[in-house]
Amino acid sequence: MRARRRRRPGLAVVAAGLLAAACSPYMGRHELQWDSLDQIWRAEASQVKVRNAQSRVFDTSDRLGTLEAVVATFQDLGFQIEVLDEALGIVSGKKFTGLEKPSVGFDPSYVLYDAESLVVFSRTYRSWGPFWHRSDLVRLTVTVRARNEKQLVVRAAAQFQLRPIEAPEPYQAFFRTLEQAMFSERHALGVVTPHPQLVLPLASVR
Amino acid sequence: MRSEVDVRWLPALVLGLALVACASPPQPTPDLLAPDDAQMNLRNMQTRSFDLTDRNQALRGVIAALQDLGFIIERANEPLGLVTGARFAEPRWTDVVGITVTVRPQEGGKMLIRANAIFNNEPITDPQIYQNFFATLERSMFIGRN
């Protein structure tokens, strides 16, 4: 009986060690993406549904003004602008959410994740990756294009934890902020016409 | 004499750890793309109004001010009035400060200039930093006029 009891702690320690190596709290909750090609065809929800959540039609033909409002919205949300092209109507940006911390106890793997560092700079740095982007990075791309002579379609696509955001709620919050930015912009310029605000179902967005 | 530790709880602990460790990845919160209160407070300290009507002149002032502060300009877009830049920050020089400045004409011959900056991954919330930036900007515009 005594001999059997002696073996059990050893087994448990080995099992715990294997567990820590194979599936630390960080590793278990985050996916490794070794190849950017993994992103392709990653969308899980219906494409139509996602597109519907991401798109809004605005009753305005002022493309430049809309792009300015998008830029103001990015600033309101704390995004840093990375790409801006008024000819193509694209604004892209990034922001960092708070770094993850273990809720209970201490996870040694977090030690390698310096809260003040930006990225893992080295290609050969051995970490849980991803090597080129931090997992707490939120990326957002907004496109503005003409739907017809009097309307514009604004579409926002965001990425969180290296996956596209498919839930509609974050986009609803984004468009609320955008509408406020458009309103304040027109107000500041002394435009007296009502601010553009029209939400159409996707079926009518072409 | 009994020196052994009771280890009956160890398998349960290992199982518990496994469950915690292999939890699902974090999901985006509904307010991920919504401004928070802190950001709305920041907006006031990030914004100044200048008595200017020429957007191009204001943009040139912004670029000169950023150069005075040691920033490398990353992008400048005249039609949308946007300038972004970045610099490494003392004392470690491995830290990065990024800044986005927008220039927007307002009613009554005013020009609204807004700057927001981040230090590594966090927004800069110290009003003094923005005051310093706008003081540099005023000087740069003054020098540019003369």
Brief account:
Chain A contains five helices and six strands. Chain A has helices at 2-22, 25-29, 47-54, 63-76, 168-188, and strands spanning 55-58, 80-85, 90-96, 137-146, 152-160, 163-164. In chain B, strand 5 and strand 6 form a beta hairpin.
Shape type of chain A: elongated
Structural class of chain B: alpha+beta
Q: Got a strand count of chain A?
A: 6
| Low-confidence segments of chain A | 110-133, 201-206
Total number of β-strand segments of chain B?
6
SS-based structural class of chain A? Answer: alpha+beta
What kind of assembly state do the chains in view correspond to? Answer: heterodimer
**Topology order of chain B in helix (H) and strand (E) letters:** HHEHEEEEEH
Radius of gyration of chain A: 23 Å
The SSE string of chain A, one letter per element, is HHHEHEEEEEH
Biggest interchain interface, per-side counts = A-B, 63 and 54 residues
Instruction: Note poorly predicted spans of chain B.
Output: none
Shape of chain B: elongated
Strand content of chain B: 25-35%
Put simply, the count of helices of chain B is 4
Q: Indicate the mean pLDDT of chain B.
A: 84
Mean pLDDT of chain A: 72
The percent of residues in helical segments of chain A reads: 25-40%
State the helicity of chain B in percent bands: 25-40%
Distance between the termini of chain A: 75 Å
The biggest sheet of chain A amounts to: 6 strands, antiparallel
Any overview of this molecule?
- The complex is a heterodimer of chains A (206) and B (146).
- By secondary structure, chain A is α+β, with helices and mostly antiparallel strands.
- Chain A contains five helices and six strands; from the N terminus they run αααβαβββββα.
- The longest helix of chain A has 21 residues, at 2-22.
- The relative contact order of chain A is 0.19.
- Chain B has 146 residues and is of the alpha+beta class.
- Chain B contains four helices and six strands, in the order H-H-E-H-E-E-E-E-E-H.
- In chain B, strands 1, 2, 3, 4, 5 and 6 form a six-stranded antiparallel beta sheet that branches.
- In chain B, strand 5 and strand 6 form a beta hairpin.
- The longest helix of chain B has 19 residues, at 127-145.
- Chain B is elongated.
- The N and C termini of chain B lie far apart (93 Å).
- Chains A and B meet through helix 1, helix 2, helix 4, strand 2 and strand 5 of A and helix 1, helix 2, strand 4, strand 5 and strand 6 of B.
